[in-house]
Amino acid sequence: MTAKRDYYEVLGVPRTAQPDDIKKAYRKLAMQFHPDRNPGDKAAEGKFKEVSEAYEVLSDAEKRRQYDQYGHEGMKSTFGPGGFDFSRDFTHVNDLQDLFGSLFGDGGGVFEDIFGGGGRRQSRTGPQQGADLRFDLEIEFVEAMFGAQREITLPVTEQCAACKGMGSEPGSSEETCRHCGGRGAVISASGFFQVRQTCPVCSGSGKMITKPCKECKGAGRQKTRKRITLRIPPGVETGSRLRLAGRGEGGVRGGPAGDLYVILHVKAHDLFQREGTELLCEVPVPVHVAALGGEVNVPTLDGFATVKIESGTESGKVYRLRGKGVPNVDGYGRGDLHVRVLVEVPTRLNSRQKKALKDFSDTCADENYPSGQGLRDRANAFFKAKQEVNKAKSE
Predict the structure, then answer these.
(1) What pLDDT was estimated at residue 82?
(2) Domain 273-377 maps to which CATH number in 3.40.640.10, 2.60.260.20, 2.60.40.10, 2.60.120.200?
(3) Mean pLDDT throughout 114-139?
(4) What is the pLDDT of residues 261-301, one digit of tens each?
(5) How far apart are CA 130 and CA 81, in angstroms?
(6) How distant is the alpha carbon of residue 118 from its chain centre?
(7) Residue 281's closest CA among 300, 304, 309?
(8) Angle formed by the axes of helices 42-58 and 61-70, to 10°?
(9) CB distance 139 to 150 below 8 Å
């Protein structure tokens, strides 16, 4: 198997490239290798997909940070074990359609073949697939950790049941559009170029409806509110994308429905902080336990766990509890929980406690507080150096 090339190398830009430079490089290469410019050339199609994958990652700040840190290995959690899939993972389809629309008519042709894996190419006069939809959903931290089932309601445009998306009254016929002659597009000349645009009369269908459907008024679709049950797997994080096939907008002229993409946003938690599959929890430890050593109960996703604290433990010391972190979204294993100790100084002392603490402090020497003594030693060294500098200046 051929090793994947570095994304920066694919686009021909340095690792310090700015977003505008990355976009310019992609536009140039996409124009060069676009399948409509290279009909039947599988090598060019492969290059087009390769530069599109590189652009998908490097044009997104978070994906780029993850790639810079972990390389192609870091993209597995983004694209899944099967790697980048152009028809599923490329999110700049509209950019491409805008870029190539004037060059290739309505932006279709071979481009739609490779985007849909051969299944999304749509004839203007035949069935057309419905648009994909995006829905942003905010979930609780606990739902992200253990998985959940949520019901969402969203407005969608579904295929008209009365006319089956055809737009015409059942039993009636259609006529060829007189404006475009059934081509679905009109062509006008401008200098050396020909500009192809969607027919404004038939909206690209090439047909004219003589008797519109009474239910949808000839649109072929109707607006409705759809209730969907969503199953959220354990381990998802902000930015995780759930794809529900066929739950997007309804198709036209009997075409299939689009897909629904649910983008998750996980609320922050006041107990746990998350970084990938790792968790961090800050735990206050009484000063006498930190000094003498002992055991403390720390919260985990599974309940309280006991952590043995060594004598002389200072604030900031971190203990690791293996396998107590976030579940992997693929279902295999869990990350770790990191427990950061915060030494807690007692407050609201009564007179007896204050006397006991005073008696204790009378027995302490500098050697009992090595960090404080170290600070004083470094400060004295600084002041001595300052005196020597001032003395040399006055001589």
Answers:
(1) 66
(2) 2.60.260.20
(3) 65
(4) 999 999 999 999 999 999 999 999 999 999 999 999 999 99
(5) 28
(6) 26
(7) 300
(8) 100
(9) yes
Q: Where in the chain are all domains bearing CATH 1.10.287.110?
A: 1-121
pLDDT value of position 201? 72
For the segment 24-46, the average pLDDT, to the nearest whole number, is 83
Question: Parallel, antiparallel, or unpaired for β 337-344 and 278-286?
Answer: parallel
Q: What order do you get walking across the sheet with 133-139 strand by strand?
A: 133-139, 260-266, 241-244
What CA–CA distance (Å, rounded) separates 315 from 321?
18
Three-state secondary-structure class, residue 295:
strand
Sequence ranges of the chain with CATH classification 2.60.260.20? 125-173+210-267, 273-377
d(CA 249, CA 222) in angstroms, rounded, equals: 10
DSSP letter string, 36-65: TTSTT-HHHHHHHHHHHHHHHHHTSHHHHH
Q: Is the pLDDT of residue 206 over 90?
A: no
Closest CA to 328 of 208, 392, 234: 234
Half-sphere exposure of 322 (CA within 13 A, CB side): 0
pLDDT above 70 for 117: no
The overall average pLDDT reported for the chain is: 82
* Cβ neighbours around 133 below 10 Å, total: 20
**Mean pLDDT, residues 338-363:** 93
Percent of the chain with pLDDT over 70: 85
Question: What pLDDT score does 302 carry?
Answer: 94
Residues 6+ apart with CB under 8 A from 212: 167, 168, 169, 218
| CATH code, residues 1-121 | 1.10.287.110
If you search the block for the tokens 């990652």, which residue do you land on?
57
Whether the predicted pLDDT of 307 surpasses 90: yes
Joined together, the tokens standing for residue 96 give 């491409």
Domain 125-173+210-267 belongs to what architecture? Sandwich (2.60)
